[in-house]
Amino acid sequence: MRKTGVHNFPAIDRVVYGKAASEAIDEEAERLTAKRVFLIVSRTLNAQTGEIEKIRRTLGDKHVATFDGIAQHTTRKQAAEVARHAKETQADLVVAVGGGSAVDLAKIVIMAMEHDIRDEAGFDPFPMGPGASVSPFRPPTVRQIAVPSTLNGGEYNAAALVTDERSKLKQIFFHPHMMPVAIILDPVLTLHTPSKLWMGSGTRSMDHGIEALCSPAGTPLADEVVLAGIRALREGMLQTLHRPDDVEARRLSQYGSWLASYGLQARVPMGASHGIGHVLGGTFDVPHYYCTPVIMPSLLRYNKPFTEDAQKRLAAALGAPGGDAADAFSEFARTLGLPGRLADVGIGEDKFEGISKIAINHRFVKANPRPFNGEGDIVDLLRMAA
């Protein structure tokens, strides 16, 4: 039982579920008195399905523009470009429809709009160093709504991951009002999501829950909610694996992502799975949704002496009461058909030193429940995951 701590509540109005995305977006625009809605959307959803056109038709004259050229790892350069476009349209609401990259882009775009950032260097005056908790940004005048098509869960977070292409470093930018003002869950929209992305993003959301559960800064409320989320995610994802067109299984998976991400909403610091994952993605081009299955089992083993009670509860939530949490997670990821080792995603030992040099200074690596005493400890962890 946690004896002391602080529980933060997020700057979000609502989560909307049980409605089609097009209907819910239009209703939220009306609620927020938005007249000029700028859409940031998945290119696949825009070009290969009718989902985005439904949204545009329902918004009618309130729709001012659609951007669909989202980079996989959100970049400073693209954020500045899209912000300029949104300002030119006089947008008063930004709506992201798609995966984690769409949502992160919307978060940082509203900040680039607020501060009139026009290029990569425009973000330089707004550093967010290791351990930073006070935002350098002003509150944004324009807010955003998120409509996720994956299970990542990053939409429940008031921070954005943005890659500086000049250094190939993924950075965290934060302000409480970067949290979407509303999140809309439409399981029908996710029928178009590729299976590997759906499953991989689900493990990423599970990662949010696991790192909150194991964090020394977690709270009793967050612990109970994320455990419920992990259980729901496991059940929903396994059902979806066998019945991809089962909308109810997708709905359950979305609810699981919502709950498992509660630690993000409460601003519980994530740990080394997130920190190392940011390096793997931003610098070494590993797809974000593959980072958790290749790192988490080894990290759980590394952290076990410091998180044994939490891992017992985690193992039960993963369907292995009395078992080992690392083994249970590894088996779950294998069942989903996801990669399980760093070698499976193109990361060999020749890259371990470079990863460790960057990761050792990452704010989430510094918040890991078991400390890393130096780069060598991270290299040892990577060898475990090789």
Explained architecture:
The protein is of the alpha/beta class. The chain has 2 domains: 14-187, Rossmann fold (3-Layer(aba) Sandwich), CATH 3.40.50.1970; 194-384, Dehydroquinate synthase-like, alpha domain (Up-down Bundle), CATH 1.20.1090.10. It is built from 16 helices and 8 strands. Strand 6 (159-164) and strand 7 (169-174) form a beta hairpin. Helix 11 (288-303) runs antiparallel to helix 13. The mean pLDDT is 94.
Percent helix range: 40-55%
Q: State the helix count.
A: 16
Name of the CATH architecture of the largest domain? Up-down Bundle
Radius of gyration: 20 Å
* Gross geometry: globular
CATH topology of the largest domain: Dehydroquinate synthase-like, alpha domain
Class based on secondary structure composition and strand pairing? alpha/beta
Low-confidence stretches: none
CATH class of the largest domain equals Mainly Alpha
Distance between the termini: 35 Å
CATH superfamily of the largest domain: Dehydroquinate synthase-like - alpha domain
User: Total strand count, please?
Assistant: 8
H and E order: EHEHHEHEHEEEEHHHHHHHHHHH
Estimated share of beta-strand residues? 5-15%
Integer tally of domains: 2
| Major beta sheet summary | 6 strands, parallel
Mean pLDDT: 94
Q: Major sheet: order of its strands? A: 1-8-5-4-2-3
Domain Alcohol dehydrogenase iron-type/glycerol dehydrogenase GldA: 14-187
InterPro entries: ADH_Fe/GldA (IPR001670), ADH_Fe_C (IPR056798), Alcohol_dehydrogenase_Fe (IPR039697)
Protein name: Alcohol dehydrogenase
GO molecular function, one term: metal ion binding
